[in-house]
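Hey, resending since the last one bounced:
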Amino acid sequence: MAVNCACMQADTTFFFREDKSIFKMSLFQHDQESEAFMSNVCKAIPLWSDPLPGVMAAGQEQHERTRETPHLVPFLLQKKEPAPLVVVLPGGGYGWRTPHEANPVAEWLNSLGIHAVVCHYRVFPWRHPAPLMDAQRAVRIVRAHAADWRVDTARIGILGFSAGGHLACSVANFGDDGEAASPDVVARQSSRVNALIAGYPVISSGPFGHRGSFENLLGASPDPELLLRLSLENSVTPQNPPTFIFHSANDSSVPVENSLLYAQALSAAKVPFALHVYPNARHGVGLAQAVTGTIHEWSQACKTWFSELGWI
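The structure tokens again:
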């Protein structure tokens, strides 16, 4: 039996087979008290028990992504005191998840002293609200495990790129307090976040929208009211968390107006935000470490912003 990676949840070790299914194996214990990264083991936590909630596009039951198991990959630091954690949502137009916007970003957050988890949420052929349910579930799982993972529940953030930015902003816009009466301890947790980082995000379904993302999420002929609701400049409230946004002025895939519209909505709601618009960069730069031009400075600017929030 071929195995891709070993994965951990509490006292249980999970393994992913090549067909994306999961089986459980032996106990795993990590007792070392240090600041070292726990990056030599691929850890994963399934988001849901079967059956998965949500709906998929009609006629797509045999699509290869229907076999995927939505899950978290934790990048947890060994901390003596509770520390911040950020949920990472890679982009991909709601059709895939871009690798360079996933694990490398979690490792960068670790370098700042921040726990991270990468959320492998569902994409096409799954439709809304499946991705949002997955991302909110990720936040709830973090809150449910906060004591074990030494996470400060007042400093839980979410970070997304491109369509993952749309998903991160959706979590920020539509946070809830959980289901108090649920028998599921995870479902009882809040999905609200305390900070939002959005990199070149898809925001609007209007003239500046990214059509492919919305088609993957909602279909070719979505309900107009739902399309308007998921044009996220329309649903910002004063309860949104402090927000850091970056974009390039000449992004040819997701126009900068998406970030400008979201920042304008945050301003109108009197939500604190930082908006960084860089003059020249392609879409999808991720950490931009090998990219020339000023956009490679965004991670340093974000580090400073985290410091201003008191997270590092």
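DSSP finds eight helices and eleven strands in the chain.

Sorry for the duplicate.
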